[in-house]
Structure formats: C-alpha cells, structure tokens
Amino acid sequence: MNCNNPTHPPFTHLNKTELDSYTHPLIKTSLPSNSIVKSWGHFQRTIVHLFTKVKAESAVLYWVALAISFIGLGCLVGLLIDDRTLLGVSVWLKPLKFSLSISIYFITTGYLITKYPYSNKKKRFINHTTAWSMLLEFLLIVFQGSRGVQSHYNTGSLFDGILFMLMGVFVGINVLLMVLFIIDTARLKLKTSKAVQWSILLGWIIVVFGSWVGGQMISQMAHNVAIADGGAGLPLVNWSTKGGDLRIAHFFALHSIQIIPLFALWVSKKLHFSDRNQLILVTIFGLLFASCIGFIFYQAKQGIPLIAL
Fold it and tell me: Quick one: which H or E segment has residue 224?
C-alpha cells in the first residue's frame, strides 16, 4: 500500500467503521469458535451443578468421595517415590485406581438417588450404607498395598484371608443395593425422562453383571486366564497383554452406570427425537455396549488378551 497515494490512506486515517472492517475478521480468527466456548461453559456449569446437587442431597457420599480422592493423591505420591512393586507394578497403583473408580461411583450414585422418589430415611440408609461399606473396602486395599502384599485373592495367612473375606462382605452389601436399584428403577417413576430412566435401568443391570464377573475372578482366585497374574500389561490399567484378563469386562460393566445414562442424556438434549425414538436409540446403544462387554469377557475366558503386545 502506498501511503502517499490519497486513494490508499494509511490505517491511522481510517474512520471507526473502516477500521472495524479490517480488525473484526482478524479478532474472530484469533479466538476459539463460539461453539467450543459455549460447550466448555456448558460443561463447567454441568459439573458444578452435579457436585452441588450431590453435596446438598447426598452429603455423606460427597464428603467420603472427597476423602477417598485425597487418599488417592497420597497414593499418587507413593507411586512416584516408593520403588516397591507387586506383580510387576507399583504397590500403590491398585489403591490409586480404586480411589478414582470409587469416587466416581459415589458421585454417580449420590446424583442418581436424587431422581428416585425415596423418603429421606431411605435415601440416608442407602447413602450411608454405600459410603461406609465401600470406604472400609478401600481402606483395606490401601492398607494391604502399603504392606506390599495383595489385597485380593490373598489367603497367604489367616490375617490376610480375614481381610479378603471382609472385602467380599463389603462388596456383597453393595451388590444387594444395586439389585434394589434395579427393582426400584423398574417399578417406580423416576424424576427424569423415560429414555434416561430406561438407560439407568440398563446401567444397573450391566453393573450387576460386572459384579458377577468379579465373582468369577474370586472363584479362580486370579484375574488372568491362561497365565499367572502379573507380567506385561497396558500402561496405567495394567491389563494383561499376554493372556486373558477378566478385569477389563469388570471395569467397563461397572462404569456402564455412567456411560449409558450419559448417552441417553445426550440423545434427549441434542437430537430432539420423540420419546419412542429416544427409547429405541438408547436400547440399541445399551445392547451394543453390553454385547461388547460380553465379547470382551468371552475373549478373556479363552485366554486371549484385549490387546496383544
């Protein structure tokens, strides 16, 4: 541009309207898209609402989940500074994974129970029973990990066997509560849409199946099939890459209570389908998800790893 040419004045001589015509496109291209900003803002509001709701109506689950999360941070520190290993991985890896899983389960249960037309007395019973039984199980896992010994399938001494038995009792209590949720989700009208209620029912059913897979591991006193526990595994989760591993189906089944309802919620918010079509879509997704878990379980029972390396 020739600034001495009167037909091409410098930017300093442009009026506000002309200057905006230059700068607005540049500003727009330098900022994140509106859809990304809106999505992130909506996600933040959803998370805040979730935790606020749980804290207000399922306080014991909220605070125990927070306590377990802090213990999980301690396990993370142990993972970094403690060189001890068990079955080829840090003694703190298992407690760390359980801290994440149980905390997520507590927040999920604490929110879902607000959708049931329960009396305050029944809510308190379920919340407190869930919180304290699973907290005790988790503390036993941390205790055994700190000793550098197995928490599950450990009958090497009378003391270890008693702790393993107690863990089984605490898990059994929660399975009974899951069965109660299945019955009540089927017979009661939840404070949510039909598709979301149906997804919650599917989620609880698959969670109970995941608990049954856990029973399969107990029956064989190991989580691997065709090879001994330990050895090469995927990063973080440590799922076996050399033989079948029942923990994979167990993991995905237990987290179906988050995955399937989240899918149903997305369908109801984004697709604007009729109730009937929402139910059909959620059913298809639930069956596909359950089929994948069933296949992963079958594959593991044949001694085949999910990912062979």
Answer: strand 224-225
- For residue 12 the two structure tokens come to 């300093």
Are the C-beta atoms of 248 and 300 separated by less than 8 Å?
yes
Tell me the C-alpha distance between 307 and 241, whole Å. 6
pLDDT, tens digit, 9 for 90 and up, residues 82-121: 999 999 999 999 999 999 999 999 999 999 999 999 999 9
Q: What pairs with residue 233 in β-bridges?
A: 240
- Domain-wise residue ranges, the chain: 45-191, 193-309
Q: What is the pTM of this model?
A: 0.86
Structural contact between residues 299 and 306, judged by C-beta atoms closer than 8 angstroms: yes
Type of residue found at 223: H
Residue ranges in the chain assigned as alpha helix (H): 16-30, 34-57, 59-81, 93-112, 120-147, 158-187, 194-220, 247-254, 256-270, 275-301
In angstroms, the Cα distances linking 221 to 131, 150, 214, 289, 303 are: 26, 12, 10, 27, 15
Residue 255 corresponds to which tokens in the numbers above? 């987290």
What size, in residues, is the chain?
309
Spatial separation of the C-alpha atoms in residues 232 and 299, rounded to whole Å? 18
Could you give the CA distance from residue 235 to residue 98 in angstroms, rounded to a whole number? 16
Q: Is 82 left (phi over 0), alpha (psi -120 to 50) or beta?
A: beta
**What CA–CA distances, in Å, run from 71 to 47, 84, 98, 100, 138?**
22, 18, 10, 10, 10
The dihedral through the CA atoms of 186, 189, 192, 195 has a sign that is positive
User: How many C-alpha atoms does 277 have within 13 Å on its Cβ side?
Assistant: 6
